[in-house]
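Journal club side-thread
Mid-discussion, someone asked how the predicted structure for our own chain would compare to the paper's figures. Pasting it here so we can look after the session.
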Amino acid sequence: MSSDGSSSYSSSKSSSSRSSDSDSSILKSSSRKFQVSKAKSTSLSHWIVTGISEEKVKKCREIYKPSLKRKADLLTNPTLDESIYIRLKAAKGSNATKANIDPTEKALKKLSFKVLDLVKPLLFLASRKKSKRKSKSDGKAVKIAIRLWATLFRYIIRSRRHNILSQVYPEYLGLLERDDIWSDGEDLFGRKFLKHLVEEAKSQATLAAIAKKKISSHSKDQPASTSQQQKPIDYSNASSQRGYVTISPCSFGGRISRYIDMWRMTHGF
């Protein structure tokens, strides 16, 4: 292994170890009760009920601009993959743009932007490791906040995927349960998922063809039903050998039945 590869592996292992220690520390934490002052409670209530002006929200959004050393596109709000978008247009019979092709996707994507804005100041607080004013409990609170944010953002992205996939490929919704076929980036689904989707579709088509062939072969091997088979004539009795077929008088009634009996007596049958 090269020195660069060894260094990268060591760094990754060290990072994973720190993350594990941090998770362990949080899981061992007990619940903490605290009070929020009247002034802060009033402000919070006002923001929720009355709202904050768009100008102020925009200003807050632009204050913190994090730069990630790894996975730089992690904070990107993904858009519909081109292939999925084309399939969705065909399913809807629409020529709308990606932004307007589906109202639910449009609303959830807008929500994604707002949630992404939320994490920026949290990442700023988390990055201040050497700050003297940052206590251990403050750091833990920030870590918990980021984890809760990640859970929320993941839920929104997953809801967006479910909404689109249920419209174009509902038979493959089970793929959403897998955790190993996703990647960060600008696309909502990504190439890794699309690759697995194609492989799954091929597998299903192959299995369907095998089942169809088996059913067809089974139906060909089935013998004809007894109702469709002709019953052979019994030539063992004398009347059959003379070219006559014995008819039971019970098959008829009244005068015809008596006529058959007289005819038999006259001709010796």
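Post-session note: The chain has a mean pLDDT of 80.
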